[in-house]
Amino acid sequence: MKAILLLEDGTVFKGKSFGAEGIRCGEVVFNTSMSGYQEITTDPSYHEQIITMTYPMIGNYGTNELDWESRKLFCAGFIVKENCPYPSNYRNQDSLSDYLKENDVVGLEGIDTRSLVRHIREQGAMKGIISSTEQRIGVLKKMLDEYPGLVGRDIVKNVTARRGYKWRKGTIDVVKNEECLPKTRYKVIAYDFGIKQNILRLLRSHGCDVEVVPAKTPAEKVLAKKPDGVFLSNGPGDPAPVTYAVENVQKLLGKVPIFGICLGHQILSLALGGTTYKLKFGHRGANHPVKNMDTSAIEITSQNHGFCADLESFKGLDVEMTHINLNDNTSEGIRSKKLKAFSVQYHPEASPGPHDSQYLFRQFIDWMKK
Known about the structure:
Blueprint: E1 2-7, E2 12-19, E3 23-31, H1 37-41, E4 49-53, E5 57-58, E6 77-80, E7 82-83, H2 96-102, E8 106-109, H3 113-123, E9 126-131, H4 137-145, E10 165-167, E11 172-173, E12 178-179, E13 186-192, H5 197-205, E14 208-214, H6 219-224, E15 229-232, H7 243-252, E16 258-261, H8 263-271, E17 276-292, E18 298-309, E19 320-325, E20 331-336, E21 341-344, H9 359-369
Parallel strand pairs: 3-4, 4-6, 5-7, 6-8, 13-14, 13-15, 15-16, 16-21
Antiparallel strand pairs: 1-2, 1-9, 2-8, 3-9, 10-14, 11-12, 17-18, 17-19, 19-20, 20-21
């Protein structure tokens, strides 16, 4: 079956359909990871995005129920150069195509993904529509013109938990095949703006009693639970319209240690008085170099964001720069010792990606300990 991708500037890519049938709109982005496609598609930060994988063959190790990072697939579409229809791995339960089909995600293969990625790098991330049913450009263009895009919209409300819950699972030691579940010593309230499960696993494996709360939970209710620390999760879209989260964080500053990741970093930045802006094509992949300003060490990090905190906006504020992106010198981490808050733009929990930055979870524990 034929499938088509139409970008908002009129560029068209035609290939073959796999996964679910249908039509989806979203922001077209690319990810440079060689593997980890299942964790990527279940990351809520990709809500309303059409993901293009730069690695040429995807799906060779299949999919399984253990590699989910949330309750469902949140991406709008999935594009690869070549989909592997015959995966080979002892953990495999479903092919990538069947996995996408069962979870209602439209896939496109057989296009020149190098050309698409170069186009996005030069022109910037843009709105697009992927279709395996409708092929008429005029019809698709009209549908795409009606899609509002991500800027200025709160889409966190579409991915956050409807009600709070306790998290009890830890990380798995693959060598010993044991779950890491130490005795809990610190109570952590985690705001769910689109949280990945490996964040929760790492918090639990660092001795935290973790309770997840919806994005709009008032700061007063959080403080009433008497937590030792508050965590601000990753999530999708533009941070600026998520005003309720910014206001709640402002009420929490100075009262309890705060640790933020990705969207949580942007929300903390706004709460501290900074501003954010949209990157040209964002940072997405598992190989982005970041410099730790405290130690000068270079960390290879997993990233997924299209918006960024403005470094210039922190001048004159009680904010230290802790991490810098070495590709474009954008903000990757901040800290306010006085207000007991710190955050990073990248994903120290990885999944997928390297583990260079997991020390940040220990840093959060140290702040709560003090």
